Amino acid sequence: MCFHTSTTHKTKKLEEHFKAKLSSETIRPLFDKPNYHLNGFSHPNMLVIPQEKSDVLAPGVWGIVPSNKASNEIKDYYKEAVKFGGGLNAQSEKLFSHFLYREGVMSKRCIIPVSGFFEPHENLKKKYPFYISQKEKEPLALAGIYSVIDTYITFTILTKEASPMFAKIHNLKKRQPVILDDDVIDNWLSSELTQDEIKELVNSNYPESKLNAYTVSKDLFSPKVDSNIESIISKIDYQELSNLSL
Question: Distance between CA atoms of 132 and 130, rounded to whole angstroms?
Fold first, then answer.
């Protein structure tokens, strides 16, 4: 599952990398501010590239909401949805069967640009957070779907069965977010895709050789600590995990 992300790239870098323009100059200062740790359960605003405007980076609220809800019902929906994961992740295996996901899978797919994300590793009933990022410090493109509520975009990150590396990291649930390689981003946002082509993109693995993965501070999991600080993405070695080979 992917409930924690990091967004530290400047908006200019995202515009260049994804060949998309920020939806409004007024939001540039907000999204130029680095967020070293975004906790999905606080439903933060993040930038997304929506299929309907694939040349635009627009703000979206993390946590998908059914399109038949009104904007004043979003907060109440999140309170109810927290028992189901807050709409933060969507199992890609259910894209064409789940009532909420099938609404958007053909026409409302999106890219969620992140600098990295965090996954939990369990050892002797203790959790250790891993930080995963691109080795060349380039943005990562997570695949998602979205809904439009009045003027708000709400989105969810797709997950799938873990690749070999992620199975070692997220060793309890053995899941990972769907990461799209740069050369298939345009395909993901195309309106021409068939169901089979969508499934093929979802099931393709991002090259593990392009990723860095290492353990970070357990403060990430503490509600009593402000973990949205630069040191949260610094490597911390744990002796009890010394035999874990990625």
Answer: 6
pLDDT, tens digit, 9 for 90 and up, residues 160-209 = 999 999 999 999 999 999 999 999 999 999 999 999 999 999 999 999 99
Distances (CA, A) of 227 to 28, 48, 108, 150, 224: 23, 23, 32, 32, 9
Report d(CA 36, CA 120) in Å as an integer: 17
Q: What sign does the CA torsion over 108, 113, 114, 117 have? A: positive
Task: Measure the CA–CA gap between 85 and 68, rounded to whole angstroms.
Answer: 20
**Rounded CA separation 240/238 (Å):** 5
> What amino acid is encoded at 174 in this protein?
K
Could you tell me the pTM of the whole model? Answer: 0.97
Cβ neighbours of 199 (radius 10 Å): 16
The distance in angstroms from the start CA to the end CA of the chain is 19
Instruction: Look at residues 34, 31, 36, 33 and name the one whose alpha carbon lies nearest to residue 47.
Output: 31
Instruction: Give 88-138 pLDDT, tens digit per residue.
Output: 999 999 999 999 999 899 999 999 999 999 999 999 999 999 999 999 999
203: number of Cβ within 10 Å: 12
Cα gap 185→124, rounded to integer Å = 39
Instruction: Please name the helix (run of DSSP H) or strand (run of DSSP E) that holds residue 144, with its range, or none.
Output: strand 140-149
Q: What is the dihedral of CA 46, 51, 53, 54, to 10 degrees?
A: 80
